[in-house]
Amino acid sequence: MALGKYQQTSLTHAGSILQGGFRLGVAASAASFVASVGTVLGIGNLTSFTENIEKTTTQAGNSDMPEPAIANHTVTVAFELLEFWPLNFAMARGSGAAGSGGCDIMNSATASVYITGTGTANVFSTGGLSVLTPKAFCFENTTLVSGATAVTKVIVYKARLESGMAFTPKSDHDTDPAMVIPFTLTGNWTPHAPQATSCT
Question: Do the Cβ atoms of 22 and 52 come closer than 8 Å?
């Protein structure tokens, strides 16, 4: 990565400045992310990643102040998906495939035909969802560093969607006419063995 001429201090770790957006993948477990990003839901903007640490507040009756322990440990991730492709939405909810988990999705058009509007319709219907099965999510950023590709993966091992799908269509004359599909994930802390190859 070439820094500005005014910048005289070099990076400690090459590729540690992330540029551009992310693509989002989902899988049944994080083991799939070592070699890939699972089922790719599309590209988008990773707008926030927050680690939430809730400490205990109980104090013993006649003793010194005890060291606080961790009562609850979660992460909250907000993401704006840019690709409107209904066939993938069931996977984000935790369904194993189209037509399960309260989502009925039918698709008989290729991506190029769907985008031009000349093919048969993609149908997304919802209702009857009784459980949100947690899935593993991977956010992958690809950056050019000194002419070479550097990949960084942010992995949430076990997470659920916080709310249903919502989007606001844009005007043709909007300064940014691309419609985004925002959603929020909450990931619970889960003990796991480190994945040495999950990040570079």
Answer: no
Q: Specify the residue for token string 């590729």.
A: 15
Rounded to an integer, what distance in angstroms lies between the CA atom of residue 181 and that of residue 81? Answer: 5
Residue pair 95/87 in contact by the 8 Å Cβ criterion: no
Sign, CA torsion 22/163/189/70: positive
Q: Are 101 and 95 in contact (CB under 8 A)?
A: yes
pLDDT band, very low/low/confident/very high, at 196 (cuts 50, 70, 90):
very low
DSSP characters over 25-92:
EEESSGGGGGTS-SEEEEEEEEEEEEEEEEE-----TTSSPPPPPEEEEEEEEEEEE----GGGHHHH
- Residue-wise pLDDT for 35-62, tens only, equals 788 888 889 999 999 999 988 877 666 6
Answer yes or no: is pLDDT of 78 > 90.
Answer: yes
Count CB-CB contacts under 10 A for residue 158. Answer: 16
